[in-house]
Automatic annotation (TrEMBL):
Species of origin: Sporolituus thermophilus DSM 23256
Protein name: Alanine racemase
Top-level lineage group: Bacteria
Enzyme class: isomerase
Molecular function per GO: alanine racemase activity; pyridoxal phosphate binding
């Protein structure tokens, strides 16, 4: 196995689910979001850990992600968060996946697929209360819900929306979205439409907006132990589940004035030792971290110097070489008492922690441990 790998702590996943559960009413349905290969952590092992710790169901982005979980033996409800296209209807019905609908074409295609297989198509209707992606605006929702509820081939499982600013310090826009969503629910109830599952809560809403939980929440980033944003009013005792590690493969002594990597963007200010790490942007170690990030070697921060290459990264060990070929280098995670967080790297790269963990490529092996269980 190559020395570069990601370590995923399934004990931390279970711990984080437990912490989220403690924030909820006992009757609240917890849907673990495991889209994008569980944010890079591995959908199948993470799903098993999340369900074992108290999650009730799963959510993915694409039908194919749901099929992967069904093929792995998962029988719990699986919500496909992305919009159902008519050509995907047969796959969704065949694998008993809950489809997200907000178009008549999608609804009709699901009904047609259900008739062919003597099944009922499970659907969640998406309400756009201010996110602007997919979903029906409030003025169009009641007629659509009425149509869906009247179709014998359709099992209307509920209604959900997404809050655009739940992770911001100012919750006023999120509050307006919740008010619009609640008004829709009141209209549906007055019309006698049954909506068993009602959801508006992502991780930030779970943590910060208790009255946005309704009866179903769908946390994502918090499951993986990462904060939704630095602006949260409250916090949970979350444990990062992922660490990104490699090993030194080469060390050389160079003089002052030595140019490093593409474009010669770093010139050594003194004689020093350079260490080469077999990891690069093709692995998900962002090129935007060039000349900005540090890695942990021997419990100390060592600066990344020069441009990060596709497959290799160079760090400056300093004028005294206190490391050796084969020593561990931690790109993010803990080493002894020292830690580099994903959020720290994301700020350096001008992005969010979500993108960095999702961006760890498939060629990086995932190793699974259970160190984070509560004892």
């Amino acid at each position: 196995m190559r020395p570069t790998h990601v370590q995923v702590d399934l004990g931390a996943i279970r711990h984080n689910i437990t912490q989220i559960r403690r924030r909820l009413k006992p009757s609240t349905n917890l849907t673990a979001v495991v889209k994008a290969n569980a944010y890079g952590h591995g959908a199948i092992p993470v799903s098993r850990a999340a369900l074992a710790a108290g999650a009730d169901s799963l959510a993915v982005a694409l039908p194919e992600e749901g099929v992967q979980l069904r093929d792995a033996g998962f029988t719990v409800p699986i919500l496909v968060l992305g919009l159902t296209l008519p050509e995907q209807a047969s796959l969704l019905v065949e694998y008993d996946l809950t489809a997200t609908v907000c178009t008549e074409d999608g609804l009709k295609a699901l009904a047609h697929a259900a008739r062919r297989t003597a099944k009922r198509a499970r659907v969640m209707v998406k309400a756009d209360t201010g996110m602007g992606r997919i979903g029906l605006t409030p003025d169009k929702l009641l007629p659509f819900l009425t149509t869906a509820a009247a179709m014998p081939e359709i099992e209307l499982r509920g209604l959900f929306t997404h809050l655009a600013t739940a992770d911001a310090a100012d919750k006023s826009y999120a509050r307006r979205q919740l008010a619009a969503f609640t008004a829709i629910l009141d209209q549906a109830a007055a019309a006698g439409i049954s909506l068993p599952y009602i959801s508006a809560a992502n991780s930030a809403t779970v943590i910060d907006i208790a009255d946005g939980h309704f009866n179903t929440v769908r946390p994502g980033i918090a499951i993986y132990g990462l904060p939704p944003s630095p602006e949260m009013h409250q916090s949970l005792d979350l444990r990062p589940a992922m660490a990104f590690k490699t090993r030194i493969v080469y060390i050389k002594e160079v003089p002052a004035g030595f140019a490093v990597s593409y474009g010669c963007t770093y010139i050594t200010p003194q004689a020093t030792y350079l260490a080469t790490l077999p990891v690069g942007y093709a692995d998900g170690y962002s090129r935007d971290l060039s000349n900005k990030a540090s890695v942990l070697i021997g419990g100390k921060r060592r600066p990344v110097v020069g441009r990060i290459c596709m497959d290799q990264t160079i760090v400056d060990l300093g004028p005294v070489c206190d490391a050796a070929v084969g020593d561990e280098a931690v790109l993010f995670g803990r080493q002894g008492d020292a830690e580099i967080t994903v959020t720290e790297l994301a700020e350096l790269a001008g992005t969010i922690n979500y993108e960095l963990v999702c961006g760890i490529s498939g060629r990086v092996p995932r190793l699974y441990v259970n160190d984070g269980d509560e004892r």
